Amino acid sequence: MVRYLVDIYLKRKLAAKNLTEDQIVAETDKSNGVLMASGYIAGGAIAGILIAVFAVVPSLKTVQDNFGEWAKGNPFFTGEASDILGLLPFLVIAVILYMVGREILLKGKNSA
């Protein structure tokens, strides 16, 4: 959804340059938002590897279990508001990604 909204913006921005459809696609693939989204994907993969390591190494497994016990007292961990804990960071990341794609944040050197 974020990529779709940013692509609409970039197509309007590039419409005056009389580019072909392939050239427009190439321009949208060079945006800072694409680079940031790739970083999100790589970060998620690294986090998955770390979670797997914590689950396998016995001494780290106890640390993970201790954090799990500690989190049970958190009202966002269990109860009616438990989904907000995952939803809020997701929304913040989506808004930041949209703003980077629209070049409101982290404007590149070649942006005019």
DSSP strand tally:
0
Helix content: over 70%
Helix-strand category = mainly alpha
- Mean pLDDT value: 82
Principal-axes geometry comes out as: elongated
Write the H/E string, N to C: HHHHH
Low-confidence stretches: none
Backbone CA Rg: 20 Å
Largest sheet: none
- How many helices? 5
User: Cα distance, first to last residue?
Assistant: 25 Å
Strand content: under 5%
Can you walk me through this structure?
The chain has 112 residues and is an all-alpha fold. It has a domain at 2-16 and 40-101. The chain has helices at residues 2-14, 21-28, 32-56, 58-71, 82-101. Helix 1 (2-14) runs parallel beside helix 5 (82-101) and helix 3 (32-56) crosses helix 4 (58-71).
